[in-house]
Amino acid sequence: MTQSACGLPYLRTFQCASFSRATTLFERRDLTMEDAVSGHKFKIGQSVNYISGPFGAGSASGIYKITQLLPPEGNDFQYKIKSLAEPHERVAKESQLDRAA
Questions:
Q1: Residue in 72, 91, 73 with CA at minimum distance from that of residue 82
Q2: Contacts from 26-34 at CB under 8 Å and sequence distance 24+?
Q3: How do residues 18-72 score in pLDDT, each as one tens digit?
Q4: DSSP labels for 25-92?
Q5: Where are the domains of the chain?
Q6: DSSP-assigned letter for residue 98
Q7: Class level of CATH domain 36-99
Q8: Nearest to residue 96, comparing CAs of 22, 64, 15?
């Protein structure tokens, strides 16, 4: 993984006339956490169908609600999700979620 001058991994690179090198998403003061979560497919409060990964328990799959938008991990946006059947929240990648019917 490529790292920035301050040692943080690059979250996103962007072209800007005032910057001649790639910068981390949070290195510029005018970018906020809101910028990091603006491309999400799902919204807070939306019901989604969660498919647990190949190493997850099959019983974890089911209907969940989005409780928080998180920054991406690589090219995959992340979410905090919560099921009524569980006392805790989970972190899920967008690729593990589909719109609930």
A1: 91
A2: 33/71
A3: 443 444 444 444 445 555 556 899 999 999 999 987 776 666 889 999 999 999 9
A4: TTTSTT--HHHHTTT-SS-TT-EEEE---TTS-GGG-EEEEEEEEEEEETTEEEEEEE-TT-SSEEEE
A5: 1-31, 36-99
A6: E
A7: mainly beta
A8: 64
